[in-house]
Amino acid sequence: MLSLVDLLARIGSGALTPESAFRLTLEAIAMREGEIGAFAHLDRDARPSGRGPLNGIAVGVKDIIDTAGMPTEMGSPIYAGWRPKADAPVVSALKRAGATVIGKTTTTAFASVDPTRTRNPHGLSHTPGGSSAGSAAAVGAGMVPLAVGTQTGGSVIRPAAYCGAAAIKPSFRLLPTVGVKCFAWTLDTVGLFAAGTADLALALELVSGRPMPLDPPARPRIGVVTQDFAGEPEPAAAAALERAALLLSRSGAEIWDVKPPSSFAAAWAAHGTIQDFEAKHALAWEYDHHRAEIAPLLGEALDKAQAIPAAAYDDARRLANRARRDARELFAELDAVVTYAAPGPAPEGYGSTGDSRYNRLWTLLGTPCVNVPGLVREGGLPVGVQVIAPFARDGVALALAHLLERAQAAS
Fold first, then answer.
1. So where does this one cross the membrane (predicted)?
2. Which of 11, 156, 274, 336 could cross-link 169 (Cys pair, CB 3.0–4.6 Å)?
């Protein structure tokens, strides 16, 4: 993979120019895009910005995020050819830092569940996950050093785990969702994909304007959470979590086995009600005027969502708020938790984007989550884990993920 930190270090040392660093991206895209299909739109005439700390860095942006001068088609024929007038704020922040948007990465229709044409770079017969399929695959295939995606259920962490990329779903609202097609306004979160945790930390620091040091807490306290309420993992995911706990312990962490409060299971079950109720409102215009053009799985989900009463949504929100209060108490004793990033390696076939059951709770809680890729491999496919810190402690999540990543590399 192309490392953001490595490319910038080589530019700083004079080993690369911004132009030659950018050319590495173009060459990688030319080599792999034909078989991967990570991009909905490519700007083959793009060039380095000539300014800023990310000068020479090419970025892929998920195709539900507005970009001036490029199509934003939402993965749907309803928006074929649509070109926004302005960049979304997160895109403006990247450009102000000197990055160049090389293209729009594929998304499932409206960031839902209908699969894209994108293939997994580690096994072309396997799904790359979704909904941020193109962003995860573009980074995992080494085509770009940085990509932007979104998560409403598990759409950043899960595809990152499947494609072997590092990724962060930041704390809710850390990155603005203005200019991002809404699916569920209390859940949608903008996230980043990169080769490693140091790359994520640098990118998030530049985009959010907040320092992200990678120094972990002294003798960190880390809980292992198996999320039994979400069902059994596959053996590879269980092995990855066990390996993560062992490596963190060897690195000086104090490892706790954690039984989550009962409110977590209730909130996990409530996620679908919140998501679908909000989606029926966020996509009301498309549903009312273009129902026949909505992708099949999403269309069926929206059909069912029409019957969700406001009272059920309000009850689900109360369950979520109770779980958030309990999460504050849980994290009062812990610096972070580790848990499964996905049920196992990427499933074979293209009929599904995989299962987000180990991601939904943490999206609902709004906590920062970091995928550490490749703790184990099964049949050449990477399997990661996610490190989760308290709300607004994104730097801690990244620092402890970095600790685990270094321990993995040294083992």
1. none
2. 156
